[in-house]
Specification:
Blueprint lengths: L2 E6 L6 H6 L2 E4 L2 E4 L2 E4 L6 H11 L4 E3 L3 H11 L5 E6 L7 H9 L6 E6 L4 H16 L4 H11 L4 E5 L4 H5 L5 H9 L3 E7 L2 E8 L2 H16 L5 E7 L3 H14 L3 E7 L2 H7 L4 E7 L1
Parallel strand pairs: 1-2, 1-6, 6-7, 11-12
Antiparallel strand pairs: 3-4, 3-5, 8-9, 8-13, 9-10, 11-13
Amino acid sequence: MKTAILTDSTAYIPKDLRDKHDIYMIPLSVIFGDETYQEENEMTAEQFFAKVKERQELPTTSQPPVGMFVELFENLSKEYDAVISIHLSSGISGTYNGAVTAGTMVDTIKVYPFDSEISCMVQGFYALEASEMAKAGRTPEEILERLNEMKKSVNAYFIVDDLSNLQRGGRLSGAQALIGSLLQVKPILHFEDKVIVPFEKIRTKKKALNRVYDLFHEVAANNEPMRAVVIHANRPEEAAAMKQELEEKYPNVECLISYFGAVIGTHLGEGAIGLGWYKK
């Protein structure tokens, strides 16, 4: 059986990695007024943050139409017998449910939808792992068993640099945003029960980063093989410095750099930084 691996654009797997691992991607979209852009295909992260500054407004976001899934599944069926469709958390988007619905509408390929219960490149880790197993000839059932095992060690924490996007996007009240800005509160966010919730509120970004490093150290210090990713919202130099620091301290960790693209960047805002990981 030949199995395709599909994820959506919010995995933010750098294109060279997607190409190297034969990972297919279906895009979500951002909408500025009457202009709609497929993230990754029609709008890069850099273009998105520039447009937000130019327009002084937050876009809305939308999941892929079910028909787009159906068309993609039918195209994949020309080469593959099955597809594992890995998507951002069903608690923050209907994308996973769209894949489920589309899977019932095609009979030329067996569709295995997978709810990552998370997003960004940590979601991408599931796709990378699935791709490696598919190329090794593992069955879809074996791959899904491994992905569910991965969930036990997957973690990700995000630090928001500016609370205004969370407020403007309806994720934070105006009073909370004002108080947070005055006190320099840098909330650490994470996924819990499929949704983004505050993990801790810390006074400064430096202290928040140190707290995330401490959480990472609790796992990485065991010297088990791990994959980690530094995720940034238009802060490539800061991300590169974090990656270098982690690699020097933890030789057991394979560390990558990724980014918050348009859809997730709509809610987190420019300057956000994250760190995610799992045990290999």
